[in-house]
Amino acid sequence: NGDFYRIDTALAVPRIDPSTWELRVHGMVEEEFTLSFTELLELDLQESWVTLTCVSNPVGGELAGNAKWLGYPLQDLLARARPQEGADMVLSTSADGFSASSPLEVLTDGRDALLAVGMNGEPLPLEHGFPVRMVVPGLYGYVSATKWVVDLEVTRFADKTAYWTDRGWAERGPIKLASRIDVPRGFEAVPAGATVLGGTAWSQTIGIDRVQVQVDDGAWQDATLAAEATADTWRQWSLEWEGEPGNHKARVRAVNRDGEVQTSDRADTVPDGASGWHEVQFSVE
Ligand SMILES: Nc1nc2c(c(=O)[nH]1)N[C@H]1C(S)=C(S)[C@@H](COP(=O)(O)O)O[C@H]1N2
Ligand SMILES: [Mo]
Asked: What is the pTM for the complete model shown?
């Protein structure tokens, strides 16, 4: 957990006493209620592997991380509140005033969207939202992964906006299909002989079907894929390669299980996430 990327607006990490923590569920619902930490722990919790991704992650960047989360399905929590006709958004708010707008449809479509209390077999670390946060496969963190969450308001996109939406980011943030080369590192000098190119690719909730690598503008080659934990997690890939001494470059693209090929179109992170193929330059000694 100490190695997991961290992104938030908190200058000082909120320190919440779990014995006084409460989640208020309200808004366009038939039944408003509040939930205490003890009540939450008594519910039927489930564990899910989910790769979180930040919308500010540049192509090839490291603002993505995978963990096993323990929590209660948001779908079941919302079912208890019974959302009213016309509601299409859940605005989650943290103890320190951050907020995120998640489509109600996404939180209730059967994916493992969780109100999480555990991370990799431990209570949530303070920096990652102790005592309770949200984790939603397939949505960037800024529209879903509210840490130190204390309030869920069922509402409409037409009526409410969230923290980053008010600062120029898109109101909806599905995670874009992406892949990354982790080795060799940019400008690394690898020894002559057989070498392995490797990295990771993700398409949360859909899954990765294929990863292809192009070395020195040659033909696209299929990489070997590691086993998939779940469709909500990134997938490691590798390609054995032997190159002549000198300078080389490699680029990567992924294909997901819907048959979508990762686009080469370069987009900046603002307003809804970076796109384009990751490329590294390296040399063989
Ligand atoms: N309270 C709070 N929750 C937050 C944020 C924040 O600024 N404040 N940032 C979000 C963003 S942009 C991301 S990418 C994820 C990152 O979660 P992590 O720090 O556990 O990796 O948390 C989300 N939850
Ligand atoms: Mo983020």
From this structure: 0.97
